[in-house]
From TrEMBL, chain A:
This is Sulfurtransferase TusA family protein. PANTHER family: SULFUR CARRIER PROTEIN YEDF-RELATED. Pfam families: TusA. It comes from Eiseniibacteriota bacterium. SUPFAM superfamilies: SirA-like. Belongs to the sulfur carrier protein TusA family. The lineage of its organism: Bacteria, Candidatus Eiseniibacteriota. It comes from the Bacteria. Gene3D superfamilies: TusA-like domain. Residues 10-34 form the UPF0033 domain.
UniProtKB/TrEMBL annotation, chain B:
The lineage of its organism: Bacteria, Candidatus Eiseniibacteriota. It comes from Eiseniibacteriota bacterium. This is Respiratory nitrate reductase subunit gamma. GO terms for biological process: anaerobic electron transport chain. Its main location: membrane. Pfam families: Nitrate_red_gam. InterPro entries: Heme-iron_electron_transfer (IPR051936), NarG-like_domain (IPR023234), NarG-like_sf (IPR036197).
Automatic annotation (TrEMBL), chain C:
InterPro entries: 4Fe4S_Fe-S-bd, 4Fe4S_Fe_S_CS, Cys_rich_dom, Helical_ferredxn. This is (Fe-S)-binding protein. PROSITE patterns: 4FE4S_FER_1 (PS00198), 4FE4S_FER_2 (PS51379). The keyword Repeat does not apply. It comes from Eiseniibacteriota bacterium. Residues 19-48, 88-118 form the 4Fe-4S ferredoxin-type domain. One of its GO terms (molecular function) is 4 iron, 4 sulfur cluster binding. Transmembrane segments: none annotated. The keyword Chloroplast does not apply. Keywords: 4Fe-4S, Electron transport, Iron, Iron-sulfur, Metal-binding, Transport.
Length: 79, 239, 417
């Protein structure tokens, strides 16, 4: 499970609904197409929210990792 | 020429106005009934028992208005009650209805209801001309109030003018005279109203009837339609 | 504006003209009694923030295109053309209204401003001018219905990782999952939000009550409703309805999210299960003695409760939270007005998700004053949106309270048997 080269790390731990996805969608525009953002969160819902968001917004979740309570999600901007 | 115009206003236009009123309302209600129902509740909470009765009370007593705008509420109640009495008073002119004693020369309320309605309309106008209510008002709102105001004023004038001749043994145009005019309208005999309504303020009667015709004709197409829609709306809120 | 777009928007408007909508649009007397009802107007008295002005924007379009008198006599000042300027106005109207329906308690006819704003929101969607963020969130929810098969495993793993935190609040029976997922024949399907704060306290409480429950794979919130898209609203609810039907649960308990509760409870028709709010469930556990709480936890705190509009006035969950709080707190005070007449917090209708912080803070000055007047130190509520907005207000106006979910207060006070 090699880490992906993330150009930006977003700490979205403990945010109220729906802020993690909102912040993600705002930040994705700040990186170039093909670059990766790494998200840290503690919300279990993020594990299904981010892939669903990626699918509907045309981006890609490369991988999600869980380390105890902290969830790391790698999102690649595709367009 | 003038007599022809007066006749047209006092007879055919009354029929036209009544027809527009009825067809307009039926059409409007039919349009609503033909639309699909919303499907889910539009009520607000807390839920209270006897929601139907409460919707009735909301419609006729306007507790929301009483709570939030008490002075306005007093005039609203005054206006609507007086207006209802005026309708009854006018129906009472038709021979045989008999709400007032047959020998009374007065209309129901004896002129006081006309004064009450006029005061209420004046309050509505003043209220509408200032503060935030002015900013939400449209030209139509003012025109309607002015229509009502002149309707009430001409009605009051007729009522008042009639009493001038009381010392000489009776009203200029008596209740019986108006009764005969209304009966003639109901018979569709197209009798000349000038023959039925003697008196020099005949022109005021013509104006009054003209304004009443206008009122009936705009009724279905303006916010006055709330007369019919207040109850179903209040039922939606009460659930 | 292009004729084709105008035609499309007229069609969308027509699709909203139910019986009830026509009654609402036909009736307003512009009496102005509703003027004082809106928290936005009460906080910054500008006519555009009154219920009547908001509705009038839509009414003028309605009269222009759907009423003979509007076509014949547009000069009476009561119609407007559907053009770019009108859409700007429609946008302002729709997204400065939180849909709290407080004005319905003022109007002599009970006209539903939120319902009328439903037209505004649909027009904006049709013109591709709606807040894209809300549509994005709704689309995400819908996509989740399709991707859930692939992400189930990861979600379940994340839920496992939370169990230790549940057990901190309540030691369950050995061998029993602290957060059960996908339980066939469960009595209660609990629908949470993405965040763990909406899962952990609820899980501890249901475990303490010995409930046979299951956590939904989906989030309760319905962004389709926020953006005013009827199809998306239905699709988002349908995921949960299907899940509940498949598991064969008796009850679906919606987490502390006002819109989620109201949509599921009152706007999705009849189901083979009952829809309740998690507040109902906590109240029932306390009433039946299935859980016990330690009042000492809130000793020295004065607690007040903010009725979320979609829970109380629009949902009917009014006395239950009060019964819960009276069990929890020795010093519970009401804010005034309260219950069905409570001031909106100013965060509803999608405003919290959209950001809009400047408007949210300015338009809710009256809320901050209302809370301050109670002298409370703990401000409880039962809605995610309200919680976020009240927390922002707390900071902005220096209210000096602790904003807390009811479930959080109950979970913190659970007495281990």
């Amino acid at each position: 499970m090699a880490d992906h080269e993330a150009v930006k790390v977003l700490d979205l731990k403990g945010l109220p609904c729906p802020m993690p996805v909102v912040k993600m969608s705002q930040e994705i525009g700040s990186v170039k197409v093909g670059e990766v953002i790494e998200v840290h969160t503690t919300d279990p819902g993020s594990l299904s929210d981010f892939p669903a968001w990626a699918k509907s917004s045309g981006n890609q979740v490369l991988e999600s990792q869980q380390d105890g309570g902290v969830i790391r999600i790698f999102v690649k901007r595709l367009k | 020429m003038a007599d022809t115009i007066y006749f047209l206003i006092l007879v055919p236009m009354v029929y036209l106005a009544a027809a527009v009123f009825v067809v307009g309302i039926v059409g409007r209600v039919a349009r609503i009934l033909a639309s699909p129902p919303h499907g889910s509740t539009l009520r607000i909470f807390p839920a209270r028992r006897a929601s139907g009765l409460r919707a009735l009370a909301d419609t006729f007593l306007m507790p929301q208005a009483r709570k939030h705008t008490p002075v306005f509420w007093v005039f609203l109640m005054l206006f609507h009650l007086a207006f209802l009495l005026l309708i009854l008073g006018h129906l009472d002119l038709i021979p045989g209805v008999g709400l007032m004693p047959a020998d009374s020369p007065h209309m129901l309320g004896g002129g006081a209801v006309g004064v009450a309605v006029t005061l209420a309309i004046l309050y509505f106008l003043l209220r509408r001309m200032q503060g935030p209510v002015r900013e939400i008002s449209t030209l139509g709102d003012y025109l309607l109030l002015l229509l009502l105001l002149f309707l009430a004023l001409t009605g009051g004038m007729i009522s008042w003018a009639n009493s001038w001749n009381q010392a000489n043994g009776g009203f200029v145009i008596s209740k019986q005279d108006f009764g005969a005019y209304l009966a003639s309208l109901l018979r569709f005999d197209f009798a000349s109203p000038r023959d039925l309504l003697p008196g020099s303020h005949y022109i005021v009667v013509v104006i009054h009837v003209f304004l009443a015709n206008l009122f009936l004709m705009v009724f279905p197409f303006t916010k006055i339609i709330h007369t019919f829609f207040a109850m179903p709306l209040n039922r939606l809120r009460r659930g | 504006m292009e004729a084709a777009l105008q035609e499309k928007l007229k069609g969308l408007m027509a699709s909203k003209l139910s019986r009830e909508m026509r009654l609402y649009l036909d009736t307003c007397a512009r009496c102005g009694i509703c003027i004082e009802a809106c928290h936005a107007y009460a906080s910054m008295p500008e006519t555009r923030y009154t219920a009547v002005a908001r509705a009038e924007t839509i009414r003028r379009l309605f009269r222009r295109y759907f009423k003979a008198e509007g076509r014949l006599l547009p000069g009476l000042g009561e119609t407007i053309e559907l053009d770019d300027a009108a859409l700007e106005k429609v946008h302002e109207t729709a997204y400065t209204c939180t849909g709290c329906r407080r004005c319905m308690t003022y109007c002599p006819f009970g006209i539903d401003t939120q319902m009328i704003q439903g037209i505004a929101k649909l027009l904006l969607i049709g013109a591709d001018r709606e807040p894209k963020l809300l549509t994005m969130l709704a689309d995400m929810s819908i996509a989740k219905g399709e991707t859930i098969r692939d992400t189930k495993g990861a979600f379940e793993q994340a839920v496992r990782n939370l169990e230790a935190e549940v057990i901190e609040k309540w030691r369950g029976e050995a061998g029993r999952e602290a957060i059960p997922v996908g339980v066939k024949g469960a009595d209660v399907l609990y629908v949470a939000l993405a965040g763990k704060h909406s899962i952990i306290p609820a899980a501890a409480i249901m475990n303490a009550a010995g409930e046979k429950w299951s956590l939904s794979y989906f989030e309760a919130v319905n962004f389709g409703a926020f953006v005013g898209n009827p199809e998306k609203t239905r699709e988002i609810s349908r995921r949960i309805i299907d899940e509940a039907t498949e598991l064969g649960v008796r009850e679906v308990a919606i987490c502390e999210c006002g819109t989620a509760y109201r949509v599921m409870k009152h706007q999705t028709g009849r189901h083979p299960f009952e829809v309740i709010s998690f507040v109902d469930l906590m109240e029932r556990y306390l009433r039946d003695g299935r859980i016990r709480v330690d009042r000492a936890k809130l000793d020295g705190s004065r607690v007040t409760y903010h009725d979320p509009c979609q829970m109380a006035r629009n949902g009917g969950v009014i006395e239950e939270p009060r019964r819960v709080l009276r069990e929890l707190a020795g010093d519970f005070v009401e804010m005034r007005p309260n219950r069905g007449e409570n001031w909106c917090c100013g965060g509803g209708g999608g405003l919290v998700a959209m950001g809009e912080k400047d408007f949210r803070m300015k338009s809710a000055r009256v809320k901050a004053e209302q809370v301050r007047a109670t002298g409370a130190t703990v401000l409880a509520t039962a809605c995610e949106n309200c919680h976020t907005q009240l927390s922002d207000l707390n900071e902005h106006y220096g209210m000096g309270v602790r904003v807390a979910f009811l479930s959080q207060l109950v979970a913190d006070a659970l007495v281990q048997a």
